[in-house]
Amino acid sequence: MEKVDRGELAAFLRHRRARLQPDDVGLEAGYRRRTPGLRRQEVAQLAGMSVEYYIRTRPGARQRHDATSAEQFARESVADLRAAAARYPHDAGIRDLVRRLLDASDDFGRLWNEHEVRVRRSTRKRLNHPDVGWLDLDCDALHDPERDQWIILYSAAPGTPTHRALQLLKVIGTQRLGAPAEPPQLRS
């Protein structure tokens, strides 16, 4: 199989995304578009995936985890998926996901064949945020077994560089993640 030039693929996808308008695909344009074409959120919505997943998997995406954290995250994720497969043995969605991952990734196959089963409760993650850089986060998973729902909490110890970065994100994040602003009213 021939290797894909990820830089070239990323440039192609950016170019195609810039040529599409929301109206072309049945979406509302909204306000304050700084660049032409579809936003990442709109591409993710059309592809049926979360924005975070789209950003993490697109060609040319910058590294989000350091190498040690990425390996730990992969191991924990596969062990957690194996626990879900054991808990829901007749779930076609889980079986299909495992089959597709086995077909797509030798690394997944290696970890899956270790047969490690673990439900994550807490861990540490090191993530690279595009605006504030590396964040060292405590990650706690709380489970409500009655509803079979999970709440994931990310936190940082007060006074640490990560805590200060999260405080900064409280301010700059509102500038990007809020609802589209109303267009300015012209006065006569």
UniProtKB/TrEMBL annotation:
Gene3D superfamilies: 3.30.450.180. InterPro entries: MLTR_LBD. It holds the Pfam family MLTR_LBD. Residues 53-169 form the MmyB-like transcription regulator ligand binding domain. PANTHER family: BLL4672 PROTEIN, BLL4672 PROTEIN-RELATED. This is MmyB-like transcription regulator ligand binding domain-containing protein.
